[in-house]
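Technical note accompanying the year-one report. For the benefit of new consortium partners, we illustrate the data format agreed upon in the data management plan: each record pairs a sequence with a structure-token string. No post-processing was applied to the example shown here.
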Amino acid sequence: MSTTTQPMLQSRRLAWFMTHAVVCAGLALIAPAHAAPAVGLQALSAVVIYPQHAVSAEVVAQNQARISAQVGGVIKSWKADVGAVVAKGAVLAEIEDTDWRLARDLARAQLSTAQAQLALAERQWKRSQDLNKQGFISPEALQQAETQARVAQAQAESAQVQLNQAQRLLDKTLVTAPFSGEIIARFAQQGETAAAGTPLFQMVQLDGRELSASLSLAQARALQKQTSADWIYSGGKVAIPLNGARVGQAADSKTRLYAVRAPIPRSISAGPGASGTLQWRDTQAHVPATLLVRRDAKLGVFVARNQKAEFHGLPLAQEGQPAAIDLPLDTQIVTSGQQSLQHGQSIQP
């Protein structure tokens, strides 16, 4: 072999080795991109949890109102004070009624006058009818007598309305309880002059107490599936039946929470204002927050079907919280490696 040919062969061999090395390196880089990634799989039954919910809840009264004077006058006397438990219709205070009695008596006298005038007008009308039949008076005179009788009737009816109004105002000098409950505040003193609308008492209804709480949408839906929940307060732990619970349909615009009210059994002595914690364990299966991933602005989990990863969205899922799931408990859930997966991607356990 010539000295010229030998360097040429060495150069060709070097070029071939370099080309082969580049191709192998490229294949090494390309191959992992197409290989099915290894993921961890577990049956849903192995990872599912049933979270316990706990929210603040307070006893509220169905009615809590300020009782105000409905007519003006001097406060004559008190019949009940703070702490008193009164029945519906019980007299709480009396307002001096002399002026209102005089107004009632005047209206009564005006009614008597109007009724007497009505009786006279009716007798004159009847007499005119008889005279008209005999031809002694004209039809115009008969019509005038009828008109006077009808005017007298309207005046009597008006006087009756005025008497009713005067009697109603007189009745309002007795301040009464609008419902059965407890007086929790008194705002005026005996001898003071109260105008119509002046607050005199504040009452709270003792019957029909309810437990009030604010829940997220997921909590509200979970609570609706329960038959009862535990309320823990200073008096101990009691069961609150939820068959009569009411869940609001609209969320608060600021907190995005839903109002919930649940009637309290009569056996529970807690009064309005008592607070505690409402607890219940969810009956709906949930997946831990660590398994959630976001795809196309939706939170969900990846499940394995036919060696492929399928994204299953969870509409009620929230970041950092366990999410309700409705899949069969034998469904294979991707428990590791899910962060880099895409829907429909091949996987290997």
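Partners are asked to follow this layout when depositing records. The helical segments are 5-34, 44-47, 98-133, 139-171, 217-224.
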